[in-house]
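Issue: ligand-bound run for zinc ion - logging full I/O for the record.

Environment: standard queue, default settings, no custom constraints.

Inputs:
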Amino acid sequence: MKRLLTVFALFFAVHAQAATIDAVILDEAALDAIYGQSSFGQSPIDIRVLPAQTLARPDLLSVRLDFSFTGSPFNSPQIRETGNLFDLFALGDPEPVINLFLVDSIRAYGQFAFGIAEGIGSGNSFAITRPLLNVQDEVIAHEIGHLLGLEHEGQGQPPFFETNFDIENLMSAIPNGHTTLNASQVETIFNSVLLQGAQDTGFFLEVRPILVGEAAEFAAVPLPASGLLLIFSLFGIGFLGGGRVKGHSSG
Ligand SMILES: [Zn+2]
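Outputs:
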């Protein structure tokens, strides 16, 4: 499957919590503020969170994305992306709805990640881990940004590949508290097939939260959260499937 995928990862926090539908709390107002900031001018985008759904697929609670090489390494090797992430993304609503899958963990190319989008300007699904503490809104808005066509800002370029992790932009390679989108990014967003509505009636995006879990969990009473267990220091990575690495940075 030739898809451009991206990983948004740093300080992944594992936080034990019961997976009930009550855990799906999206701050729609915070997302509206990001997609209606001043660079959107007279065309703010309304984020509309659709009713949450549950998906009783415990086999998809921990999703992974890997790649394997096929063909001869000396003669046009092909990179093939594998993993159950694609099984998960296949279960979402069709475009233009954006599917937000909440899972327990995401591992992409061996690294734990906060979130992962199906593509940059392609696909309509992304996954995030739950709960994401204080960076959840930023990660959700960031992954939606990828689906709308935005690449990372501050990404290292040849020959040094030095990434600016402090860039004041939503599309920084790691979450850093900044949610700015510039005029050029807004232009890209308005070319997305996922954008609905019109100038006179208002533009909007529909986001469907889908909570993945065990069937029994969905009727359960929430348990108290048990606090932070582990913290991993990770990195952001951009990757183009189909045989060509587009950009890669580590830190
Ligand atoms: Zn990203």
